[in-house]
TrEMBL record:
Pfam families: FMN_red. Residues 1-140 form the NADPH-dependent FMN reductase-like domain. It comes from Guptibacillus hwajinpoensis. The lineage of its organism: Bacteria, Bacillati, Bacillota, Bacilli, Bacillales. Coiled coil: none annotated. Gene3D superfamilies: 3.40.50.360. GO terms for cellular component: cytosol. Belongs to the azoreductase type 2 family. It comes from the Bacteria. This is FMN-dependent NADH-azoreductase.
Length: 182
């Protein structure tokens, strides 16, 4: 099983990166191969719908990893009541063929007081347009869930995230078996 973990934050010091690192650690512990996209490190050109932009090395890397992925964990900070522009730009380079019938977990980091819900709703709408199998459960973290080194230390948050990651792995396992319903 291959899971693509996407960090939609373009910031160098990012709480969303802390979240994606925690997700990656959980998947690694399960022996699952992790593919990554990090908006802070993988600088994509602005999506303009031009074929020549598809040749950009970072766009090729994004497309290759999305094609290989069996499932996704998509994480974003909340900017102005939505996902980050950097994440939306990355998703614009992908299409329904990359997400169709692939389980997708959504997670966000808000500014506190349960911020991040609007980013989750925004991501859910976009992922529906890309035919992803978005989990009904989702995860939202506050910055206080992490210590100064970026480790998730809040027990309830860790437990909630584990539930979402386990749901993703379980659904992906079922889909990989390709059981036909008659």
């Amino acid at each position: 099983m291959k899971v693509m973990v996407m960090n939609g934050s373009p910031r160098d010091k990012s709480m969303t990166r802390n979240l994606t690192n925690t997700v990656t650690d959980q998947l690694d512990e399960k022996g699952i191969e992790v593919l990554t996209f990090d908006a802070g490190f993988h600088n994509l050109p602005l999506f303009k719908g031009r074929k020549e932009d598809l040749d950009h090395p970072e766009v090729q890397r994004l497309i290759t990893n999305a094609t290989k992925a069996d499932a996704f964990v998509i994480c974003s900070p909340e900017y102005h009541n939505g996902m980050s522009g950097a994440l939306k730009n990355a998703l614009d380079f992908l299409g329904g063929s990359h997400f169709k019938s692939k389980p997708t977990a959504l997670a966000s980091v808000g500014g506190g007081g349960k911020g991040g819900i609007n980013a989750l709703n925004n991501m859910r709408t976009v992922m529906r347009g890309l035919y992803a199998l978005v989990l009904p459960d989702q995860f939202c973290a506050d910055p206080t869930c992490f210590d100064e080194k970026g480790y998730m230390v809040e027990t309830n948050a860790k437990e909630r995230l584990t539930i979402v990651v386990n749901e993703l792995v379980s659904l992906t396992s079922v889909i990989e078996k390709k059981i036909e319903v008659k």
